[in-house]
Design brief:
Length: about 375
Amino acid sequence: MKQLFDFDEIRPFYDEEVPEIIPSIISEKGFEHAVKYIIPDVDYNKFCNQMLSCHSKKDFQDKLAVPFLYQLIHASSSGVDGSGFENLSPSESYTYMSNHRDIILDASFLNVMLLENGFDTSEVAIGDNLLIYPWISNLVRINKSVIVNRNVPVRKMLEVSKRLSNYIHFAIKIKHQSLWIAQREGRAKDSDDRTQESMIKMFNLGGGSDLKSNIASLNIVPVSISYEYDPCDYLKAREFQLKRDNPSFKKTPHDDLLSMEKGLLGYKGHIHFAVSSPINKQLALINDKLGKAETITEITHIIDKAIHSNYKIYTGNYVAYDLLNEDQRFIDKYTQEEKELFENYIQQQINKIKDIPNKDESFLKHKILEMYSNPLKNKLIAIGDF
């Protein structure tokens, strides 16, 4: 395996590497600080000894990652559940492709759902822009993560994309290991989830057969992730205003760290994962006479329709839709009290934004309403009820 494929820079660590890597992680002051911040009552020495007892990626997930995720679910949500897993087989390998809400937790909570439904955890494709320190990179790679190189010169982009594509094909077809990847690079800050055509083009760089057969071989499963509340909604709205007022605005590593922290620890309400059937039957129906570009567009539409039609819609989504559209279409879906509670929630989130000049509350409210309205709007379009 090591000799045939050159994936060493991006692959998860091999199990035999895990005991070698863990001491370097726990020796980092930044790691110690992060653990004590996220788990305030932790016995750090006991925690480190638990890590040192891990001799494989599965060990690490079973002893530390999954128990931590259950603690997080209990502390920061009203519960996580899923649907559609009966459409899949634990003996098959899949490319789970989902909308992207939270930097860390989308794939992590999906893995909890997979375990609860009798499946192995998936590998996770994660952008290297989030791996601010070497210990973070090492930590995610002992947790079955695959590194997506983003900040590379244009001349190297094709090479990097081809390596990632080859790895995904290798994982699904040779390792028989499922893998999660977001439908786009970065989160959809306005929750208007669309599969980027560049993702399908990247998938097609590896594998070696015609486009439709190549994509079918990856067993793509669309996954719809629905959070009742997004604890980063105000940070996303803040970024929208900063970009509006200064088109050259760029996020800093501190911004990403803050989003990771708020996403981890902030209240999320209820969270639902809806898993679709693999898209292969629909792929087969795409007209073979279409050109490559048109076929790629059709594939993204298949994935998007599956994701959009399976959103779980919460009270806040209905309220946001009506407020945004100055309408009462869904007035039967919420009470006056629920409407007022949601409006108060939005105002509380806007009040957290304290560090931008010329704070535009009307604009910020509009952007947050869009975030909660768009999943409902896209679901209505997908099911033909818009």
